[in-house]
Specification:
The chain is an alpha/beta fold. α3 (66-80) crosses α4 and α4 runs parallel beside α5. It has helices spanning 19-24, 40-46, 66-80, 115-135, 161-170; strands at residues 29-33, 51-55, 87-89, 140-143, 174-175.
Amino acid sequence: MSKESKLGCGFPNAMFRNMPAFYKIPQTCTVVLHHNRNEVPMLRAKFPNMRILMRAYTPNWTREPAVAWARSIAQWMNELRQFGVVDVTFANEQNLVVEGHPDGAPYQGTEYPPQSVYENIRDWNLDVIQELRIQIPWAVIHFPALSQGHSDDSNDVGYVGFEILRPAVEACDVLDVHTYY
């Protein structure tokens, strides 16, 4: 089995960044927030073979009805399909309080959210994934990356977040991770 090497950096979340410098980086993949999806045609023109992951971002996923969110994502993905965008992730670091769960872990530190946070993530994500499979069956669905160090991948406080999330992770095509140094 051959493996592809991909090199890329996240498309700037805010357009005030140095875009000429971004476009000079030789890259084969990137992540674009749905707020910046209007930049995809230019991105595709500059990098015709680039793999583009659209990250749909909501600052408070617990208040977002899962099916309605999935339908919004499907509309955006249908618009981007003509530019070869098939990869999508529907949230970000859902185990953090700043990403929308009132009981999530703080942004910094190693405090642990209650087990119910991971149960809520699993249930909401399964609803989103199920609707995405109906609306955009051609899409490659990525399980959103979690913030590390919050009992997500080891039994720090009596549970392992990824074990709770297993059904939702397995319903996706790709498991996204964030690598922090």
